[in-house]
Amino acid sequence: MFENSNRRTAHIACSFAVAVRVQQHMGDLVSVEFVGAPPRSRNTKHALIAMELAEHPGEWGIVQRPASITRASSAAQAIRSGRLSAYPAGEFEAVARSVVEQGRVEHRVYARYVGAKK
Which helix (H) or strand (E) covers residue 8, if one does? Predict the structure, then answer.
């Protein structure tokens, strides 16, 4: 029993020494911010996009401008299939397109909310 408590004490002493070194190196202690439970959705950015699309049912919107058509196609597929929890399968349509404007190619993901299939 004493053996474990000695190890624990040694571990705490090492942690304190590391904290002191961090403070000396960075000028301030690194701290933890306790703010409560994380949001229910892991994809809060996507949850906001999905809510915006649902507010305008049937209207296409540009939801992403990725660097390549491959990434755009992958994102559109993730939306269509419901792979991202913010977009339940069958409730959203999505397509990827490359658009040329003023001689510049831009890859876009268009999506729209179509509602739950009955």
Answer: helix 2-26
98 in Cβ contact with 69 (< 8 Å) = yes
Residue 5 clears pLDDT 50, i.e. is over it: no
Residues 25 and 101: their CA atoms lie apart, in Å, by 50
In this prediction, residue 8 has a pLDDT band, given cuts at 50, 70 and 90, of very low
- For residues 93 and 65, what is the distance between their CA atoms, to the nearest angstrom? 17
How many helices (H) and strands (E) are present in the chain, helices listed first? 3, 3
106 strand-pairing partners: 99
Q: Are 63 and 111 in contact (CB under 8 A)?
A: yes
Among 111, 97, 48, 44, which residue's Cα sits nearest to residue 68? Answer: 97
pLDDT digits (tens, 9 = 90+) for 54-98: 999 999 999 999 999 999 999 999 999 999 889 999 999 999 999
Which is it for the CA torsion 34, 36, 40, 45, positive or negative?
negative
